[in-house]
Every structure is written in structure tokens, then in C-alpha cells.
Amino acid sequence: MRWVLFLASLAAAIGLAVLTAQTPKSLPASTPAVQFSAARAMMDVNRIARAPHPVGSAEHRQVQTYLVQRLTALGLQPSLQTGALSPAAVSRIEREGGKAGGVQAVNIVGVLPGRDPGLPAVALMAHYDSVPNSPGAADDATGVAAILEAVRAIKARGGAERTLVVLFTDAEELNLDGARAFFSEHPLRDDIGAVINLEARGGGGRAMMFETGPGNAQTIARYAQATQRATGGPSSNALAIFVYRLMPNGTDFTVAADRKLAGINLAFIGRPAQYHSPSSTPQALDQGSVQHIGSQALEMADGLLRAPTLPQAAQNAVYADVFGLFVVQHSPAIGWLLLTIGGLATALAAWGARHATGMRATSVVRGAADGLWLLASAVVVGQAVRVLAGPIGRRVDSADLYYTLLRRLPVLEIAVALAMLALVLMLTAGRRLMGRWGAAGVILAAFAIAAALGGFSLPVLGATVIALALSLARPKPQDADAVWGGWLGLIVLVLILGGGVQAIAPEAAFLLLWPGLIAALAAASTAVIGARFRSWASFAPAVVTTAVVGGWLLVQGHGVFLGVGMDMPGAVGPIALMLALMVRPLAPGAGRALPIFAAASLFLAYGIAVAARLIA
User: Fold this and answer.
1) What are the φ/ψ torsions at residue 455 (nearest 5 degrees)?
2) Which one of 220, 246, 340, 533 counts the least CB within 10 Å of its CB?
């Protein structure tokens, strides 16, 4: 029975994750005028991205002329704003073989007046320059075309109270020079109260909202409301915003956020092979991605234009979308309440398990140690998989190699996912059957690969020491309470980690606290229904949480990997830990199948990572 439930719940989780990751259907040109149509937007993408159009090129000037004509046709009376290029931009042009003499950044600004010109305006922003070797169909012809289509739809819906400013910035690919010029020099800069920016780092995938202005609770509430009407629904979470703030990357929205403006930054980052690549053509672009980013931008802009007030800086929200259907949002302080409820539910589950099975505290401690083992092992094994796919860190010494690694990213994600699956299988039962030295051998082999191909890394060495110590110190569990001890130990570990993150970075704690709370409630329910696992009903809470929460976790893991996986694949370790947390009570406890599956999954992960090197 366990095998059936184990495999079925995992299959359901994977199925939910795959369905959620799909882009929405592109709406045709015959779509009603008040809606966003990717087919209509693609007409502009085809014209803008017919060839590379970097700053200073003849094609760039032609795109500029075309956009002025399009804005004029929409009734926005566009104007041009020129600004000097920064030394960094000049240096980059010359480094790429161009001539920077006399070249300036030229922003295109269009205004759709609102009924009350005294109200703060809303800006829709995207950049219209490309890198020299790419047509830039995604980055950022899609953003420009989506704004044109959104403006058309907004006009079709009738006049709004607020003024809409359309800002097509220049020289974003050089040093954000166009955005810097607008927000420091343009007369309209002080009239703007909110900004919606459209970007891309790839050629497909769901469009994620990954950055906001400071104090975003009110902005997130507006985003949640607006995207209920958007094709494909919301795609965002507080962790993405928290992590992006820590990264050195920047877009035009960075300039607006520095001015404390409210707003959102949208981008899709799937199909990474198309990022800054000759392959970023209109034909290769995922039109479902165009539909998703454009409809989110339209509904958010339209909602703000017609709102009596714009979002103001408050506290940052804790939030995440659920399968692209809706957004769950709460204040940071609620995290402590969730942690308390999770702790009480865990205590109830422990009482029931002890009463029914005689579970001992040492079994729970061993379960928590297993979780720590998985987290440490994920760093080591993830690094081994990563270096097999190509150089890492300072060894990535050229832009060409960086873009090559981006092209390998989808294959690398599969390899890392298989490696994490192997660790989950080892934790749930396989490591017990492999024995101490078998588990230690896996870690030593991974460390040898990581060190030989990736060089010395103190974090990897530290994780190796921890994983080895836990592998060798763990006694062989044979007690009847191993399932309960393992499950509750993982729940306790996740709640403790969640409490630590709650104290340091409450916006990111939801990724641990939400699954930890749900698992604790599932464990408490199981203790009431049947702590001895003798009926189908006693497995129901674990099956439901594995399928639903496991699917949600896989979606979050996909986002984490796309964001930081090329540099830090071990960052998906917490996702693997929480997936193990969900599936632990369902894992078959006898036979050699799990360690065999774990070994096969790990070897396959290494093989796929090596094969990724064939992608140039």
C-alpha cells in the first residue's frame, strides 16, 4: 500500500507543478478590444525585433522612428528626451567594437492624459535598445510591444482619472542610462507615483513579478487583485523579491525604486538560451509568455489608473501565489502565529504517536539529524552536478561562456532535480539500508568531483564535513517508531529553521513556515485518525499534503533554480528537505528498491550534467 501511495502522491505533485509552469494560451487578434492579445502585440514584436538594434545603430534609429509613429497613432503625442551616455556605457560600446562618438541615449515619452491631471501619474516602462548581436525579441521588444497593446486596451476601456506616461527608455543594455536620464532630468519625473516595468531574461516561461518598490504591502494587495483578471493569473512571491534585492543585477526599475516609487517589475526567464542571443527572434518567442506579461501589465496599470489612491510605502508583505490562481498575503508578524500553531500541532502529533507507538524523543532527534544531513548533502551533491556541466564562479571568464552556461541551464535543472530526488529517497528509507559507509561514500565522491572540477570552496567543504559526520554518527534505526520519529523530526527542524528565518528575514520565512505548518497539521490529523498507519484513511493527510504542497514546492523550486541555480544549485536543498517532509510517512520501509532508485537517480543526474557540456 505504501508503494502505491508513495508513487501516486509524487506523480500528482509533479503533475501539478508541470501544469502550473505552463504559459497561458495566446489570445488571437480577434480578441475583444478591452483585452490583451499576444497576437496583436506580436505585430509590433515582428517589426521591432527584425534585426539587432543597439544604441547608435541605423536599425536603432529605425525602431525609434517606428515607435514614435505607433505612439502617435495611439494619440499619445510622443516626445524625445536625449541624455549623455555614462563613461561605463561608452566603454562598453567601444569594447564591443562600436563607435561612441556623438551617440546619446534617446528616450521616447508618450502621455495619455487623465481626467484629473493633478493626480500622480502611472508609468508603463520598457527599453527599446538591444544588445549588438541579438534581435531582442524578448529583451525587450516584448515589453515595448506589450505596452503598446496595453495602451490600446486601456483606451478601449474608456478614460481614466490618472494620466498614463509611456516611457520607452534607451541604453538600458549599456548602463540604464535612459532611465537615469528620465528620473533625474525629465519634467514629468516628479508627476509619477507608480511604475510598471517589463523585462525579460530568456524567451519564454511564465512572467514573474520579481521586484517592487519599498514597503510593498499595498502594492502586493493591488497586484493580487489585478492579476485575478489577467490571463494566466499571478506569478510572484516574497522570496523572489527578497533575493533579488541581494543580487547585484539591475533593470530600469532599479532607478525608479531608488526614488522610493511604488510599482512592480515583470519578466519571464524561461528558455534562457535566447537571452542576449541571435536566437531571440520573434519566431522563437513563446507567445504565451507575451500574453502573460502583457495581461499582467495591462490589468495592473488599468487598476492603478482608475484607483482613488496609489500604493504607499508601508511594511513589506509576506505572500506567494498558489498555482497561479490567487495570492496568499499576510503581515510579517503573522509568521510568529503560524509558527506557534505549527508547534502546538507538532506537540499534539507527538503525544498521539507516543501513545500509539511508544515513540521516543531520540527517534525525533534522529529525524531532525536526517534533515540536516539532507541540507548539507544538497550543497555538496548540487555542486558536483553543477561543475560536471561546466565551469563555475571566477572560472566563467567571458560573456560567451556565460551565455553557453545559460543555454545549458534547462538540462542542468533536470540533473539537479534528479540529484535532489536521490537525496530525498536516501533520507526517507534508502540511507538506512545503504548503511553508514554507503551514505558517506556518496558524499565523498560528490566532494571529490566538486573539488577536482570546481576548485576549493569553503562552504562546500563545511557541508561535506557536516554530511559525513551525520552519515557516520547515525545509529541504525530499527525501532517501530522510525516513521513517526523521522516525520516529526523533519517537522521540528523545518519549524526551527523557519523561526530563525522569521527573526532575520520574515518576508522569506513563508517558504519554510507554510509547508511546516501544513505538515504539522497533517501529522496531528494522522495521530487522531490512526497513528499506527493501519488503514487507508490514516495515510490521507500525508497523501494530500504531498500531492498539493509538494506540487507547490516544486513550482517554488523551479523559480529558485532559475534565479540562482547556475551559481548555487544547493539553494534548492530546502525545497528537497520540505518535499522529504511531505513524503516521509509514505515511504516504503522494506526492501532494496529505494536505495537502488536513489543510486540510479544520482548516477543519471551526473550523466545528464556531463551530457550538458555538449550544448555549446
Assistant:
1) 85, 180
2) 246
Cell of 400: 560567451
Q: Which is more confident, 475 or 184?
A: 184
- Residue with cell string 494587495: 221
Q: Which residues contact 341 (CB under 8 A, 6 or more apart)?
A: 517, 520
Q: How many CA atoms lie within 13 A of 23 on its CB side?
A: 27
DSSP 269: E
Distance in angstroms (rounded) separating the CA atoms of residues 94 and 29: 42
H/E/C letters for each residue in 133-168?
CCCCHHHHHHHHHHHHHHHHHHHHCCCCCCCEEEEE
Q: For 291-306, give one letter per residue: b (16+ CB within 10 A) or e.
A: bbbbbbbbbbbbbbbb
Of 150, 100, 127, 301, the closest CA to residue 198 belongs to: 127
Cβ 33 vs Cβ 137: under 8 Å: no
Query: φ and ψ at 167, to 5 degrees?
Result: -125, 105
In sequence order, the 6+-apart residues with CB closer than 8 A to the CB of 29 are: 37, 39, 40, 43
Q: Answer whether 0.90 is exceeded by the pTM.
A: yes
218 — alpha (psi -120 to 50), left (phi > 0) or beta? alpha
C-alpha cell of residue 1: 500500500
User: What letter does residue 235 receive in the DSSP assignment?
Assistant: -
Q: Nearest-CA neighbor of 221 among 314, 293, 292, 153?
A: 314
Residues contacting 149, CB < 8 A, separation 6+: 36, 37, 40, 41, 44, 294, 298
Residues in CB range of 69: below 8 A, 6 or more apart = none
Separation between Cα atoms, residue 510 and residue 517, nearest integer Å: 10
Residue range 161-195, pLDDT digits in tens: 999 999 999 999 999 999 999 999 999 999 999 99
Q: What's the alpha-carbon Rg for the chain, to the nearest Å?
A: 26
Minimal CA–CA distance to 108: which of 130, 124, 88, 132? 124
Residues 6+ apart with CB under 8 A from 529: 535, 537, 538, 540, 541
Residue 480 has pLDDT above 50, yes or no: no
pLDDT digits (tens, 9 = 90+) for 37-68: 999 999 999 999 999 999 999 999 999 999 99
Contacts of 246 (CB under 8 A, 6+ apart): none
CA distance 170 to 181: 9
Q: Where are the beta strands (DSSP E) in 334-471?
A: none
Helix axes 593-612 and 361-389, enclosed angle (nearest 10): 30
Cα–Cα distance for residue pair 349/518, rounded to 1 Å: 12
Q: In what order do the strands lie in the sheet with 262-270?
A: 79-84, 104-112, 164-169, 121-127, 192-200, 262-270, 204-212
Grid cell digits, residue 499: 523561526
At 281, the pLDDT band (50, 70, 90 cuts) reads very high
Residue 22 grid cell: 505552463
- The length of the chain in residues reads 616
C-alpha–C-alpha distance, residues 213 and 315, integer Å: 11
Q: Predicted confidence band at 261 (pLDDT cuts at 50, 70, 90)? A: very high
Half-sphere exposure of 600 (CA within 13 A, CB side): 6
Phi, psi for residue 207 in degrees, rounded to 5: -80, 125
**Cα dihedral 572/575/580/581 (nearest 10):** 150
